[in-house]
Amino acid sequence: MARTLDTRQANRLVSLFACLLPLSMAPTAHAATNAPQRPNILFIYTDDQSYRTVSCYPEAYPWARTPNIDRLADEGVRFGPVYIGTWCLPSRASLLTGLHPTGIRSLHSAGRYPGGTYDPAQCPFWPSVFRRHGYVTAQIGKWHTGNDTGYGRDWDLQVILRSHLARDGDPLPSAWIDWVRRYHQSVRALDEAVGKLLEALEESGQRDNTLVVFTSDQGLAVGQHGFLDKHAPYDANIATPLIVSMPGTLPQGKVCNRPVGGVDLVPTFFRVAGIDLPWKMHGRDLTPLLKNPQRDWPHPTLLIYTVGRFGDDTLHPPSPAKRPDRVPWYLLLRQGRYKYIRAGCVVGFVGGGWGLG
Question: What span, in angstroms and rounded, lies between the C-alpha atoms of 260 and 84?
């Protein structure tokens, strides 16, 4: 069944800072009696979480304490800061299609935020393919990928949480230090939830047969480069943690510093499940890196920022007068230790104009 929960009265912490709720896709295989058991996939996908908030990262804040997420890294492969997305909707859309925003057809932001529309025939989501191959799929948490949540088509089970930054009548935190404190309290609550998920996998005997992936839709700058935001191509704004764990199958306690992106995760899920890709995707299967985190990886990572436009709507950047925020459209290309950024609008920076030419 699909359910929608309003968390304003259910959880004070969640209602104060909603964007760290996990979105999990947890398929369970229905294997034949004598057939090898197919792996489960638990995808823990948080919101607005910088890699600096996870204590196993060398760049973490000194006050960061995430023992359960750290344990996941001890039992798997921790990637250096990665590029999953630039903000909520395009990040989620890319993770549901395996495509960069420029390749996602029919998706549009529409109506009251965070509303949106899309045509499932032109914009299919990959969990429906897993369902056709005998998996049970479930999505729990924030949605923010169109008004059609895909229940019954993409998901067998679905619980959508709609939460708010503050309760009705409660002021937002006025002091900077109070805002930061509440943000990191949310991280601690999230870490406790990760611990409960791992405990449930162990108690049910499913831990070794479950690929657990922990990441976020994008990071969040908290004062770095003058931002309290994501969007911009600085690592401080958009880079996220990525930890992949499957004891007995993948190495444990390893670090991979090869830059990868969100579109790489979807082909990886298909490879782990033994299912052929249903359409051409923009990412690369990461299982070679997961098996050998130090291997050569000559592939660059691409991240595209077109605010709320997708598909054919990205052929022409909007005029400066219609630009919805202060960050211009850009392409980010990362290979090794080098990052190249090509901005589509330089108004406000060097007085130029729109265009990628």
Answer: 8
> Residue 42 forms beta bridges with which residues?
212
* Helix, strand or coil, per DSSP, at residue 192: helix
Averaged pLDDT, groups of 10, the chain, 357 residues long: 46 25 35 62 94 96 95 97 93 95 88 84 95 91 89 92 52 68 90 95 93 95 88 94 96 97 97 96 97 95 89 75 69 93 53 32
Number of other CB atoms surrounding residue 291 within 10 Å: 12
CB 13 within 8 A of CB 190: no
Please enumerate in sequence order all residues whose Cβ is within 8 A of that of 357, keeping only pairs 6 or more positions apart, or say none.
none
Distance from C-alpha of 247 to C-alpha of 75, rounded to nearest angstrom:
6
pTM of the entire structure? 0.86
* DSSP category for residue 318: P
Contact 217, 51 (CB under 8 A): no
